[in-house]
Amino acid sequence: MPDMSQKKSILLRIDPRTFKAVEKWAADEFRSTNGQIEYLLEQALRKAGRYKGKRDDVAEREEGEPKD
């Protein structure tokens, strides 16, 4: 599991109805809302063929990138 200092923070504007649905879905799956959004994004990226490999592979590639 990557340490929190490696994660990027963003401001996300989302429709209240959509947020409420994601929040409920997260609770049903015993995840945080943030964790659920991350999970959904990862699944969508994999399905679109834009995210391959394991999480650790991505973290290793990003280590060489300059930090914000």
Q: How would you portray this structure in words?
A:
It is a single chain. The chain has 68 residues and is mostly helical. The chain has a domain at 14-57. It is 54% helix and 0% strand. The chain contains 3 helices and no strands. Helix 1 (16-28) crosses helix 2 (33-47). It starts with 15 loop residues before the first helix and ends in a 5-residue tail after the last helix.
Task: Give the gist of this structure.
The chain is mostly helical and 68 residues long.
Write the layout of secondary structure elements.
Elements: H1 16-28, H2 33-47, H3 55-63
Helix pairs in contact: 1-2
N-to-C span: 21 Å
Give the rounded overall mean pLDDT: 83
Q: Any idea what the radius of gyration is?
A: 14 Å
Q: Tell me, what's the shape? A: globular
Structural category: mainly alpha
Instruction: List segments where confidence is low: pLDDT < 50 over at least 5 consecutive residues.
Output: none
Count every helix, treating DSSP H or I runs of 4 or more residues as helices.
3
Proportion of strand residues? under 5%
How would you spell out the order of helices and strands?
Answer: HHH
* Biggest β-sheet description: none
Instruction: State the total count of DSSP E strands.
Output: 0
Percent of residues in helical segments?
40-55%
